[in-house]
Amino acid sequence: MNVYAVVTPFVLLLILGEIAWCVWRKNGYYEFQDSIASLGTAIINQCVNVLVAFVWAPVLAWLYAHRVYTFEAGALSAVLLFLGIDFLFYWFHRFGHRTNLGWAAHSPHHSTEELNYAVALRASVTQRFASFFFYWPLMLLGFDPAWMVSMVAFHLVLQLLPHTRVVPKLPRFIESWMNTPSHHRVHHARNDRYLDKNYGGFLIIWDKLFGTFEPEGEECEYGVTVPPNTWDPTFINFQVWRHLFRDALAAPRKLDALKLWLMPTGWRPEGLPPHQKAPKGHKFRSTPLPGSTAYLIGAIAIGFPLMLLVSRPDSPLDGTEKLVLSVLLWAGATAWGGMLESKRWAVPLEAARLVATAAFFAPHWPSPMFIAASAVSVVAAMWAVTVAPTRRTAALRSR
Length: 399
What we know:
The protein is an all-alpha fold. It has two domains: 3-209, no CATH class; 293-394, no CATH class. Helix content is 62%, strand content 0%. The longest helix has 34 residues, at 32-65.
């Protein structure tokens, strides 16, 4: 069972509920551009997860075949598995913040300068590959791989809940052991006193045991110290990877090029200057294409059902079709990011993607004419809400 596919409708309802609350309260906790970028990134991340499961399945099966014990399904075994995942997640999460290699995989989740339930979905496309390097002991101990993967997914879904500024500090007896919104706000902040704190997934006790706990005090400023300053999902996901490869190539000493990857986050080879950090209070904003707001909302709304065609086990698509649709969704998320920054290539890319998507679904629809009419209609609608207003605005300014 793909837990993510099952809970997606409920997660989206939770996000819509938080948005409605924030709009009513006028608290500014949601920013349109950031939310579109987060949701677009979430769509491509879930598509990549299917590939991750395919790659890791035989490895996990081999490990399970060499297990030292067999845990039968039951309440006690489920609790032990959940606690084991939560404990290993703490160390995986800590590795993701404390090493260059780990940060390259994890940083996209922290690249946003907001904190809300949409932000919780901005996950890295490379992090899931790395996470199973930490969960492998559970297979050797005797937990079934399919059960483990489902429990990991359930564990991550629970971590959606602390990603909010709406919920204040909870009673002390809850704050003392659970990773609450207050604790996770600290984790997402880039304040000096909050950096590299509160790694816990469901439980905060691991941070208290291993010296990484910090209570919420001063107001949090969210984001990373070296922000991507773009809504492009590809750049967001590979920004730190690019920095590391460039540093490895530029390193005067070959040894530094090798050890760079496992050195503390931010470490650079001798002779290279430190990365320039964002000034205090910095928030990246851009000028979107005029009239594109409604279109982008609609594109996201359509993107999630298409994502489920990739991620659901009962999808009618075969493996090759899932791969093609994933590429089309990635192109879409890239085009949406370009629209948010008024990039010239954004509308042509989105138009091409829509035509390709219509052609992709043609074998599943009854009439080629219907496909062609749908593609033309959608492209015409895009023109009306994006390119045409831009030209009208330019024409007015030139008068």
